Amino acid sequence: MKTGKSVLPPTAEPSRKSIFQDRNFVLFLIGQCITTQGLWVQKIAMSWLAWSLTGSAFWTGLIAALNFAPAFILGPVFGVMADRVNLRKTAVTLNLMMAATAFLLMMLSMAGQINLFWMVVLAGANGVLASAMTPIRLSLVPVIVQREFMSRAVAYAAMNFNISRLVGPAVGGVVIATWGTGAAFMINAASYIPMIFVLATVKIHVERAPDAKSKRVLAALVDGANYALHHPMIRSVLALSCFVALVGTGMVELMPVFAEAVYDRGVTGLGMLASASGVGAVASTFMLSRVRSDPAAFQRVTVIGAFAAGCGMLGLGFAPWYELAVVLVAITGFGLTAVGVGSQTALQLTVDNKLRGRVMSFWSATSFGGIALGGTMLGAISEAGHIQYTARGSGILILCAAVFGFWRLYRIATNSSKPATETAK
Question: Where are the bilayer-spanning segments (predicted)?
Answer without folding.
Answer: 25-51, 57-80, 92-111, 117-141, 153-179, 185-206, 237-258, 270-289, 301-319, 325-347, 359-381, 393-410
